[in-house]
Amino acid sequence: MELVRRYIQGNHLITTYVLDVGGVKVAVDPGPPNSFTPTDADYIICTHIHNDHCGAAGHAGKPVYVHERYVGHVANPARLWQATKETLGPIADLFGEPKGAADVRPLRDGERLFDAIDVYFTPGHAPHHVMFYYRDGGVLFTGDGAGVYVPEIGAVFPTTPPPFRFDLYVESLRRVASIGAKMLCFPHFACTEDVDLLRRHLEQIKAWREAALAVKGRGGGPEELAAELRRADEAAAKIAERGGLLYSFFLWQTLLGLLQS
Ligand SMILES: [Zn+2]
């Protein structure tokens, strides 16, 4: 498997994984438009249509597979781009404007692609979220459905932008935790054989949700929740310490989603 690390202003934003399945090359999550570089992939598959994952699908000029109900958003991303700008503000421009993809194909829950990759609908992070399981290699491509994994600091933390659905997220995590994967590959940012991480992340998201409900109950906002999580969770403390997009994009969106859910 080939790894293409994509950067925005010196920040590692996402890793594109290029798999060779029986001579067919498949790229998982091409990244945002502004970090696009071509790969030799024959097909693109997107875990979900957020701009940092699938924004460059139209630049790649290859058939792209997305959740069956969101084909139109990738073929004609004008509305999606508008919503992205409203949600992310200046960070949207940092990632860049998507182009419509000419050949967008629907993914269906439970289907097998290229006779090798199983498709699991895993809503929660977003309604259009799917995970891919490469059965021969035992590799689960988690998308944003199992958090952000930062190997340099050995930390995982949730990425739950609004509109986050806690109940669906937990249900999706439980579903894929029972597959028996031997390796997890996170677009943010690396793979690990520590598959117990799925279980630990499930406990973590429950704890963060509890913290968010408590803060919300007191009428508090994202700053207060950030402070609370930094005290309670070493991962949150490390992310806040590192700053950059890890804090201003990933963690901040997570706080907003948790408080709104
Ligand atoms: Zn996302």
UniProtKB/TrEMBL annotation:
Pfam family, one: Lactamase_B
Gene3D superfamilies named in the record: Ribonuclease Z/Hydroxyacylglutathione hydrolase-like
Family annotation (InterPro entries): Metallo-B-lactamas, NDM-1-like, RibonucZ/Hydroxyglut_hydro
Residue ranges of every copy of the Metallo-beta-lactamase domain listed in the record: 13-188
Name of the protein described by the UniProt record: Beta-lactamase domain protein
